[in-house]
Specification:
Rossmann fold, N-(1-d-carboxylethyl)-l-norvaline Dehydrogenase, domain 2, 2 domains, 10-stranded mixed beta sheet, globular, KPR-Related, NADP, KPR_N, oxidoreductase, KPA_reductase
């Protein structure tokens, strides 16, 4: 397949490298020194599942240079999505598919404001990875997984073909018939740990070991589930229990990308995670005191990072 990885960070770098390794024609969209190093030395993937060097790597900062694209995997941060969509809408072929692997619950809504839904499939990923240095992506933990599905929850011919493309690349893959349920399940997991991790400056293992912090995490999750049910999302009654089993099984020193971004003074996905729950709670008339507390405690730091990086609020 002719695939574009829009955003060559920890997520895009990993999945893009594996897709190249499986013989696909992959173009990486990157910026700055990261792009420069990838062009010169290739993209180096480090992973306990096997290292791989993409060399030579097809990489550019301009998606307009790529023609006849079969699939675009959007792998930027949520606050970069609008900019990505503005560029992507100009390069679509008749049958181009778009899947967002971003955190958050309204990425499809953002994309579909400018792009016909016929191009869009819902999606998410599960992985702990990061840019270790320019041109180097380090997969730290978690079985790299892509979950995706048609917006109408039908197993279409193109979805079934794409499922095989991911599997041939050694990517754990789930083609779902309820993509909204899957997106909210991932959202529950990541929004339960990320902002609290940024607030405490602690790893998942450190937080779970403190009963008071673990209780705060539970209350955060309960509020998210309340919002999800009000939105008619089909989450099972034991969803929080299942998610906490996953959280407790993470390596002790695991941190989220939101947490790492905030600790490094970078713009984060705070608005798309706990901030989104606060906003939805206000719209629905549902109280979310724990998410409010976490969100507003972190908001001054988020605003400062956005000012320093010249990004609008």
């Amino acid at each position: 397949m002719n695939i574009v990885i829009y955003g060559t960070g920890g997520v895009g770098g990993y999945f893009g490298a594996r897709l190249v390794q499986a013989g696909n024609d992959v173009t990486f969209i990157a910026r700055g020194e990261h792009l420069s190093v990838i062009k010169k030395k290739g993209l180096q993937l480090k992973s306990y599942k096997g290292d791989f060097l993409v060399y030579p790597a097809k990489a550019t900062s301009a998606i307009s240079e790529v023609k006849n694209i079969d699939l675009i995997l959007i792998c930027v941060k949520t606050w970069q999505l609008n900019e990505a969509v503005n560029e992507i809408e100009n390069v679509l072929a008749k049958n181009t598919m778009i899947i967002s692997l971003l955190n958050g619950i309204d990425n499809v809504a953002v994309i579909s404001k400018k792009i016909d839904k016929k191009h869009i499939l819902g999606g998410l990923c599960k992985i702990v990875s990061k840019i270790e240095d320019y041109g180097i992506v380090n997969h730290i933990s978690y079985e790299p997984t892509i979950v995706f599905g048609e917006l109408n929850n039908i197993k279409s011919k193109r979805a079934l073909q794409l499922e095989q493309t991911f599997k041939r690349a050694g990517i754990t893959t789930k083609l779902t018939m309820d993509i909204q349920k899957e997106i909210w399940t991932k959202f529950l997991f990541i929004s339960t740990i990320s902002a609290i991790g940024a607030l405490t400056r602690a790893s998942i293992g450190e937080m779970i070991c403190l009963p008071e912090i673990k209780d705060l995490m539970y209350k955060t999750a309960e509020e998210i589930v309340t919002i999800a049910k009000a939105k008619k999302i089909n989450l099972p009654d034991d969803i929080i229990k299942k998610q906490f089993k996953l959280i407790e099984n993470q390596p002790y020193n695991t941190t989220s990308s939101l947490q790492r971004d905030m600790m490094e003074g970078k713009p984060s996905e705070l608005e798309a995670q706990n901030g989104k729950i606060v906003k939805m709670g206000n719209e629905l008339g549902i109280s979310t005191p724990v998410n409010n507390f976490i969100y507003y405690c972190l908001l001054p730091q988020e605003n400062k990072a956005r000012v320093l990086n010249k990004i609008g609020c």
